[in-house]
């Protein structure tokens, strides 16, 4: 299997498949794995295991962004993520920090993180763009309309594909105006953030419009609630998060064939396999 390499901004790329980003939530309340990796040793052990399974990046997050989540103080977020990032970076693991606070991002970069994964696309903290511009690091900018507690009320669109695309273009323009190089940017359509299930499926059905922006696209669909709703039981109860992995790997295959740069997932090995299959199909064309 080929190894990942990085471009001149530090963004991993591969010849044999899309990049796989493993999720490491060091939080007590994330929707899928909250509390499982709050202990430093447990977090590091899980990250090392994900790398052994093929993860190219470990995405460390210290604040839940699930719908309805309550924000934590910056000091608490820093206390959660910095020890983990320090240990992983020292082991040579490529780390991204999942945050939309500039203060946390800056500390994470100092600790060895190489990528900022910002679910707010720069809207959550005006300082973020300057920090990214100065660091020259990759910056994932996601489509976002507001904090977790307001997600449902913000899920209104004239046409979700057009609206999300236009709003992402505005975030790209703002980033470039702030001094960020276009080559530093990765875009994420923000599945599940201020979007209902129908919105998510529409965005997935039109992934090519985001790929056509000419920037790397991150697909972050792993175990999300719209999969739980689709896979509901006969009583209409959503499939629990642990039972959504087959749906996640299906979306990894679909996204890879659509041309995304990477996928952000909780379970690495099945999605690495799916990505390899998708690449083999694409190569055979």
Concise overview:
The chain has 285 residues and is of the alpha/beta class.
Secondary structure blueprint with pairings:
Blueprint: E1 5-6, E2 12-13, E3 19-25, H1 40-52, E4 57-61, H2 74-90, E5 95-98, H3 102-111, E6 115-118, H4 128-135, E7 139-142, H5 160-177, E8 185-188, H6 197-205, H7 207-211, E9 218-219, H8 225-230, H9 245-258, E10 262-265, H10 268-284
Parallel strand pairs: 3-4, 3-10, 4-5, 5-6, 6-7, 7-8, 9-10
Antiparallel strand pairs: 1-2
Could you characterize the architecture of this molecule?
The protein is α/β, with parallel strands linked by helices. It contains ten helices and ten strands. It has helices spanning 40-52, 74-90, 102-111, 128-135, 160-177, 197-205, 207-211, 225-230, 245-258, 268-284; strands at residues 5-6, 12-13, 19-25, 57-61, 95-98, 115-118, 139-142, 185-188, 218-219, 262-265. It has an eight-stranded parallel sheet with strand order 8-7-6-5-4-3-10-9. It has a two-stranded antiparallel ribbon with strand order 1-2. Strand 5, helix 3 (102-111) and strand 6 form a beta-alpha-beta unit. The radius of gyration is 17 Å and the shape is globular. The two termini are 20 Å apart. The model has no long low-confidence stretch (mean pLDDT 93).
